[in-house]
Design brief:
mainly alpha, 316 residues, single chain, 13 helices
Length: 316
């Protein structure tokens, strides 16, 4: 009996350690890629957000293939029709817009404020879901979104490094991210067309690379020459770029695994906490000035997001 209890206890400890490791990987990958993006785009002179996004998507395409086909992280889900492919291509372009917008905003805004604006994703998701799927929530759920928006308005007023163009790009990226999640539910709603996040990334990434390559060459025409020049000037340039791209994939992989091995409620709590951790770490690293008004605004937004998630769960 004690042997059985010991085995059960050992198994439970092993599972807890595994999930804890996944959460640490998820946090470090997500926060790491944001901080490295900021460092490369603002502090390192690598001012090519479109090309940087293309590097991320290239890494995601290669590593997704390796993970699914060779490492069997998730079963391969083949595409079943041209119609399904076109839907995924549409999602890929919206996904590109959200990532590029977020990277552009990092050139102009501190990571802390970027995270504060990004916390409004539930607001945009609720708005798009309302108009695109005619899905209605309880009135109290919509009421919880008021502090989400109010907090960002307050944080914007108290942000010493506020930049209008950066703010527009950040809010656009946040809206695009929410739009993509709602659009995904609409386009891939039938059971035969649903894909898990790893397979969706496998198919979206190469499309994103093909879409971003000509855009980068047109809008960032000197990117290759200047990247090679920076690589010669800074010996860690290529290592940072490779690490950054690998982290972008790791963030997606760890998100998939954490989702698979934890409950939706745990994921929601961890997601809210992740933004707050990134907010604090970025201030410690980049030493950007913050105000009491800005911190208060972000706190109100986070509390609004927590309240929104809780009311959604209770009033299903």
């Amino acid at each position: 009996m004690s042997s059985s209890a010991s085995l059960s206890s050992s198994s439970s400890r092993g599972k807890t350690s595994f999930i804890t490791s996944l959460i640490i990987l998820w946090y470090s990958s997500n926060i790491g890629v944001i901080l490295l993006n900021k460092f490369l785009l603002s502090n390192y002179g690598f001012s090519f957000p479109i090309f940087l996004t293309m590097c991320h998507m290239s890494a995601c395409a290669i590593l997704s293939y390796v993970s699914i086909v060779f490492l069997k992280v998730a079963p391969l889900q083949p595409l079943k029709s041209r119609h399904q492919f076109l839907k995924i291509a549409t999602l890929s372009i919206v996904f590109c817009a959200s990532v590029v917008g977020g990277n552009i905003s990092l050139r102009y805004l501190p990571v802390s404020f970027n995270q504060a604006v990004g916390a409004t994703t539930p607001f945009f998701t609720a708005v798009f879901a309302y108009f695109m799927t005619l899905k209605r929530e309880a009135w109290v759920t919509y009421l919880a979104l008021v502090p989400v928006v109010a907090g960002v308005v307050i944080a914007s007023g108290g942000e010493p490094s506020f930049h209008l163009f950066g703010f527009i790009m950040c809010i656009s990226a946040t809206a695009a991210r929410a739009f993509k999640s709602v659009l995904q539910g609409v386009l891939l709603s039938s059971e035969g067309e649903k894909l898990d996040s790893m397979n969706l990334l496998l198919y979206m990434s190469p499309i994103a690379v093909l879409f971003l390559l000509p855009v980068a060459l047109i809008m960032e025409p000197n990117v290759l020459d200047l990247t090679i020049s920076l690589g010669k000037e800074h010996k860690f340039m290529w290592m940072l770029l490779l690490m950054n791209s690998a982290m972008a994939y790791s963030a997606n992989l760890s998100n998939f695994l954490v989702t698979k091995h934890t409950s939706p409620l745990t994921l929601q709590v961890l997601g809210n906490a992740k933004g707050a951790v990134a907010f604090v770490i970025s201030i410690l690293i980049f030493q950007n000035p913050v105000t009491v008004v800005g911190i208060s605004g972000y706190t109100i937004t986070v509390l609004g997001v927590v309240a929104y998630g809780e009311t959604k769960r209770r009033f299903k």
